[in-house]
Every structure is written in structure tokens, then in C-alpha cells.
Amino acid sequence: MKNREKTLVIVVVVLLVAMGMKSLYFDPFKPQSLEEEELKVEMTRIIEAEHDNVFYDMGILTTRIIAVKETEGVLKGHNLKNALGLFLLGEEY
Asked: How far apart are CA 86 and CA 56, in angstroms?
């Protein structure tokens, strides 16, 4: 490999590691109260019912809760879909 190719490979690896670290440490929802914990548990049940397929069962795709709130009796959440638990594929509101 030439120097330029080695540099590009190193840059790609560093960016993938940085994206993985972001997904693991900065994205997860951390409940501040018991009420928020209960909302998170309920949202987890809803997400598991929606995403019941082979890729989720095998752990290839995962969903991470970012925010949960209840307005006028309706539970609303913000979730991120991840491949292998690290790489962002999309968002759901």
C-alpha cells in the first residue's frame, strides 16, 4: 500500500472507533426519576413489539432510546436504530 492509502485506512478506522464510542457513551437515555424509568420500560416494550424480526432477535440490529416523554396521555419517544449496537442506521420519533 502507498502512504496515501495507509493514511486513508487509518482515518476510516479512527472515525469508526469515534462513532462507536459516541454510540456507546453519549447516546443512551439516562432516567433522572422513577417516572422516567417507568416511561423508558414502557417504551422498551413498545419498541420490542414493533421490531420483532430475525435481525433484532440475532442482535444484528438494535434500538437505543434517546428520549421519552408523555404528553396528554400519549407516550412519545426518540429512538436510534443501530447496526451491531454501534453504527447508526436511522432515527424514529
From this structure: 14
